[in-house]
Amino acid sequence: MYLNTNGTIKLKVPEGSNGLLVKNLYLSCDPYMCNLMKKSISSTANSFEPGSPIFGFGVAKVVDSGNPKFKKGDLVWGKTGWEEYSLITDVQNLLKIEHTDVPLSYYSGILGMPGLTAYSGFYEVCSPKKGEYVFISAASGAVGQLVGQFAKLLGCYVVGSAGSKEKVDLLKNKFKFDEAFNYKEESDLVAALKRYFPEGIDIYFENVGGKMLDAVLLNMRTHGRIAVCGMISQYNLEKLEGVHNLVHMIYKRVHMKAFVFSDYYHLYPKFLDLVLPHIAEGKIVYLEDIAEGLESGPAALVGLFSGLNVGKQVVLVAQE
User: Fold this and answer.
1) Do the Cβ atoms of 112 and 286 come closer than 8 Å?
2) Mind listing the pLDDT tens digit for each residue in 284-297?
3) pLDDT, tens only, 90-149
């Protein structure tokens, strides 16, 4: 982008660049973004820089291209800035949207990072089998609602936890979980899990951490699997909570593995082959919470950590 002599802004990729200039349409609000506001979180993630736009996953339309893989008018999803227009110089993990018979916002959720996270965590990390007992924390969120539906389609018994009666009702009535409970109403999480899983848990999809993880470890079955996707209860704590029941992993030979979706980019075509027909046939449903306008983005992002969103939190920046 540059300023013409007449005062208008020209939307062009800089001369010699192989990047893209895109118009941002939808931005994804995700819990991991809180960690990027800290000075140093890991050797593999770049923190946000004060004075610069924050960044995350989103859906955009190509306005100008210096890259032969993309042309003007292409729809894409991947990392972009929280701004109206972004110059994307690293296009390695930017994916072209080929299927437009679904809402474009889905590529910030069910067909984007959260969808591939749910797919890879459940099928690749957990190695599920029909009839197994599955527990999902933060189950009404962008990832949890999908994991539960994948598990039901496979023939598993599925229970989810959430933070309000409205969300519990959604899990049971809209997403067809077998059971669900409001963790805020449970004074003893160990007893609550024992109530819903009298024979124990085969698979735990971890989104919360802290006291919930401790309670789960006491309720796992022998050779159970835990996929560690996130720990939203810990992200805003100055001092992280400890986990006290890890010794039970030895007793029960539990396999616990952390993962990030980018480890499984190569499975994206296989993921689409599974999920697109399920969406078309109504076998998988997806709930979004869409905030309108870039100016609504900060409140939408902060609201994730107090449970204000119902479903996948998305910011609508502009119509196509």
Assistant:
1) no
2) 999 999 999 999 99
3) 998 899 999 999 999 999 999 999 999 999 999 999 999 999 999 999 999 999 999 999
